[in-house]
Write a structure and sequence with these properties.
By secondary structure, the chain is mainly alpha-helical. The protein has one domain. It has five helices and no strands. α3 packs across α5. The longest helix is centred in the N-terminal third of the chain and has 15 residues.
């Protein structure tokens, strides 16, 4: 049990070394989740309900269980989707 507890402890290598991660996570929350914007494509609304619903439909509700590798399955699932759904999947 002691080993498990030690694994859960984070040791800072440098003071505030997690600051950049928290800043990016905050930006993602504000830009993408709260304002539907993109982090990659400035000013574009990528994180919309429509794109989320399409992504859920093609990946979650219709998983590709073939033996192909992830990249091939990913491309095949996205092949008939809009550019915005492609951008959403990339982001």
């Amino acid at each position: 049990m002691k080993g498990c507890l030690e694994m859960a402890i984070y040791y800072e290598l440098e003071k505030n070394d997690r600051k950049a991660i928290y800043e990016v996570a905050e930006k993602w929350k504000n830009e993408c989740l709260l304002n539907n914007k993109s982090l990659i494509w400035d000013g574009e609304s990528i994180w919309t309900d429509t794109n989320l619903d399409r992504f859920k439909s093609i990946f979650v509700e219709n998983p590709d269980v073939s033996g192909e590798n992830f990249d091939d399955k990913f491309k095949k699932q996205l092949e008939n989707e809009s550019e915005d759904v492609h951008k959403f999947a990339i982001e």
